[in-house]
Write a structure and sequence with these properties.
Pfam families: IQ. Belongs to the PCP4 family. InterPro entries: Calmodulin_Regulator_PCP4-like, IQ_motif_EF-hand-BS, Sp17. The chain is mostly helical. It has helices spanning about 10-30, 45-65, 70-95. The protein is flat, with a radius of gyration of 22 Å. About 0% of the residues are buried.
Length: about 110
């Protein structure tokens, strides 16, 4: 049942799932209508970096067709990533409720 986290196939599957999710969120942001008027962007130093990044994303989308989603290893990798995220999310939701009580609000028996 233990999953070898150093397995190259697992790393590839995780990267593929993550890139798919990033592409999904990017497309979702493009589709949503913005209530703000479009802003005129000024050229920045980072403008040169945008082109190679887009090229890599296009290659990742092309590689998505090569993944067999029924492959048991891919399913295991997806389950591991999902369970890790769910655990992170639940810990994040619980954390604000467990803040320590401030000094001025302690009960009489804790002095």
């Amino acid at each position: 049942k233990d999953i070898d986290l150093t397995d190259k196939d697992l790393e590839k599957a995780a990267a593929k799932i993550q890139s798919t999710y990033r592409n999904f969120t990017a497309r979702k942001k493009q589709v949503e209508p913005s209530s703000d008027p479009p802003k005129q962007e000024e050229p920045t130093v980072n403008a040169k970096e945008d082109a190679p990044i887009k090229k890599v994303e296009n290659n990742e989308e092309e590689n998505l067709d090569d993944i067999d989603l029924k492959d048991p290893d891919v399913e295991k990798a997806a389950l591991k990533i999902q369970s890790t995220f769910r655990g992170y999310k639940s810990r994040k939701e619980i954390k604000p409720d467990e803040k320590p009580v401030e000094n001025g609000e302690k009960g009489d028996d804790e002095e």
